[in-house]
Amino acid sequence: MDGQLRFDGRVVLVTGAGGGLGRAYALAFAERGASVVVNDLGGDFRGMGKSSSAADNVVEEIRKKGGKAVANYDSVEAGEKVVKTALEAFGKIDIVINNAGILRDRSFVRISDEDWDLVHKVHLRGSFQVTRAAWDHMKKQKFGRIIMTASASGIYGNFGQANYSAAKLGLLGLSKTLAIEGRKFNIHCNTIAPTAGSRMTETVMPPELVDALKPDYVAPLVLWLCHESCEENGSLFEVGAGWIGKLRWERTLGAIVRQKNQPMTPEAVKANWEKICDFDNASRPQTVQESTAGMIEVLNKIDSQEDISMSHTSHAVSETTSRFNRVIGYKLPQQTFSYTELEAIMYALGVGASIKNPENLKFLYEGSSDFSCLPTFGVIAAQKSMMGGGLSDVPGLNVNFAKLLHGEQYLELYKPLPRTGQLTSESVIVDILDKGSGLVILLDVYSYSGKELICFNQFSVFIVGSGGFGGKKTSNKAKETVPPPKRPPDAVLADTTSLNQAVLYRLSGDSNPLHIDPSFASLGGFDKPILHGLCSFGFSARHVLQQFGNNDASRFRAIKARFAKPVYPGQTLLTEMWKEGNRIHFQTKVQETGDIVLSNAYVDLVPTSDDLSAKVSSKDGALQSTLVFEEIGRRIKDVGKELVKKVNAVFEWNITKHGKTAAQWTIDLKNGSGELYQGPARGSADTVFTLSDEDFMEVVLGKLNPQKAFFSGKLRVKGNIMLSQKLEMILKDYAKL
Ligand code: NAI
Fold it and tell me: Is the domain of 192 the same as that of 85?
């Protein structure tokens, strides 16, 4: 028959094939050309007695139909003997179906040692013995298919079957490991949990069901899993009545219940119980490596926590400090922001996009073939968290919000903003700093479209007059500003804001009267209403994208700026820009006064593939990683001091090409204000990484997860492995080419 899955030339061993499911497998394999060893001890379903007739009958049945079969009457506990029959009769062994089984059902306390041991011997040890005897033959011939037979009792548990369910789930563990060890020899091992009418189920199922649930409705799955064309490996299926389903593990996102330098307590477990057990957004780890990588991430997260225990225990600490410390980690209520092209266009007008520049049409006209949202529209989606019902409602944060100034802003886009959509934002207070004259709240906002993270904002909010409470001054959570290079700017773009600029901008959601109502402005100490800081921010981001990003929104990765002074509507903004690789430093001045209004700012651009290939090919055979290290070197010059504080370690890199070390680099983030140099570490390195040039690029470009690279052997790490987590942070933040 065309397309029929055949087993001609294959030798199949089915254990416990004298009846029930095993018989159905043996017949089906033989019918499709396989030579079959029909093994059966021929006892009763409790494992008592012995007879050759069960196996003989099935062999007879197969032969009558013109198939090839031999019988074996050994117990599966004597695996070598069982396999020997296959080798002697047919010269090899290709497929093993571990199916033999017995029951010794009893409620848990009544299970005798014998009940326990016998069930384990037949199911678990038997499958081990038979499979081990076949393994080397399969390995040598680079082909093998193995089936383990588990049971719903093992997966879910079942009253009266403690011994049986334990053995049955043991088989799943065995199968999963064999799948891993056998993979490279083309030996696949899968597990089934069947349901079928047989003498084993006669005692628990009504006769009609025993008849209806035919073993023939299970056998086709076993045949498919054992076919040479089937790639499935290490999986578990439930099968019966003509239905087949695949099972997998699911794990909740869970909760971290421990804090740095503090004991982990059962109370903390209790407090987090709901979150620990919440399957929303659950993950599905598939390997021990994935599972362990999660643990390493947790260790790193805890390790990078601020050491709040110290301030909690110190008697000298003020009541205010500990009150603020309790606010750290507070999650604000989720906010959603829905928008259409109309809102995106309104925002673009608000930050000065104009058709006087024809290239701006794509930000202003939804009919443009390349219509896109300005990247900084990403702050609009997130800003609700700061406003009504946001920060001012945080319990314990009793500060005067009338004195709020927007201090700094960071925005990172993980992909261009969709042209219309609904973004859900999750916000958390990550730190509170004491700047003396005021207090700074760092608010991280993650905005998602569905489950996909679209952008990240960090609002840094200054509350005038609330400082001086004895809190810390800096935070490793803060996205730092970076001063521009000391040379004259590489480019300057100018735009005059209109008198109505703030009136227009406020339509995008920031309706603070300070920006439109003269009496409010004078209360705040200003001559007249001032422009929104985020409005000037939008102007300058647009300038950078125009000058260095070809007005292409997908080139935008991130922006950081400090709001230094107010701007009045009608003034002219000058964006001074410096290009350093794909980081464009900028500062914004008011032309009329010369005041710097946005300071120490930068935009990170995504490199174009042309950029990359041009750079790589121009170096003719040079390592791609060299470009990244050069970029890291530039960033260390900018922010080395802070990195030394945060990281405090020396990393050595061996970059290989065709298996040989092709370059060595050292990133010193321990001494002075940090340094990158070629060659091995001058002192001793805390961590040494070895990986190929290609894999290094994959990691940097976010295509290869470093943990996976480590567990798969692509990345070798010597020394302090925990520090490599900090390095991941640097690569992510600083290797943006
Ligand atoms: P069955 O009792 O008809 O078949 C099991 C066969 O294994 C018998 O022919 C028996 O003589 C043989 N056997 C027992 N001990 C042996 C030993 N030490 N060495 C060699 N052969 C031995 O039962 P059924 O239902 O066909 O079960 C087949 C497999 O499927 C078993 O592993 C069972 O645990 C499993 N299973 C069956 C379910 C069902 O609904 N039928 C449900 C879940 C699992």
Answer: yes
The strand order across the sheet containing 187-195 reads: 68-72, 35-39, 11-14, 95-98, 144-149, 187-195, 236-240, 243-247
Using 50, 70 and 90 to split pLDDT, how confident is the model at 559? very high
Catalytic site residue from 25, 73, 156, 164: 164
Active site includes 164? yes
Q: For residues 550 and 631, state if they share a domain.
A: no
From 220, 247, 274, give the residue that closes a domain.
247
**Which tops the pLDDT comparison, 666 or 680?**
666
User: What region does 405 belong to: left with phi over 0, alpha with psi -120 to 50, or beta?
Assistant: beta
Q: Kindly state if the Cβ of 101 falls inside 6 Å of ligand 1.
A: yes
How large a percentage of the chain has pLDDT more than 70?
93
Confidence of residue 633 (pLDDT cuts 50, 70, 90): confident
Is residue 36 within 8 Å of 67, Cβ to Cβ? yes
Q: What is the pTM of this model?
A: 0.54
Q: First vs last Cα of the chain: how many Å apart?
A: 58
Q: Are residues 466 and 317 in the same domain?
A: yes
Ligand 1 center–CA 67 separation, angstroms: 23
Write the pLDDT tens digit of every residue in 443-470: 999 999 988 889 999 999 988 877 777 7
Question: Tell me, what's the pLDDT at 144?
Answer: 98
Number of separate domains in the chain: 4
- Pair (61, 205) in one structural domain: yes
Residue that is last in its domain, among 247, 270, 292 = 247
Q: Which domain holds residue 685?
A: 610-734
- CATH number for the domain that contains residue 622: 3.30.1050.10
Residue 556 has pLDDT above 80, yes or no: yes
User: What was the pLDDT predicted at 133?
Assistant: 98
CA of 42 to the centre of ligand 1 (A): 11
Cα(151) to centroid of ligand 1, in Å? Answer: 11
Identify the residue whose C-alpha is closest to ligand 1 atom 10.
16
Q: Are strands 68-72 and 95-98 parallel, antiparallel or unpaired?
A: unpaired
Does residue 41 have its Cβ closer than 6 Å to ligand 1? yes
Residue 290 forms part of a structural domain: no
Same-domain pairing of 486 and 476: no
Q: Is the CB of 195 under 6 A from ligand 1?
A: yes
Domain identity same for 560 and 698? no
One-letter amino acid identity for 198? S
Burial bucket for residue 664 (CB in 10 Å: 0-12, 13-18, 19+): middle
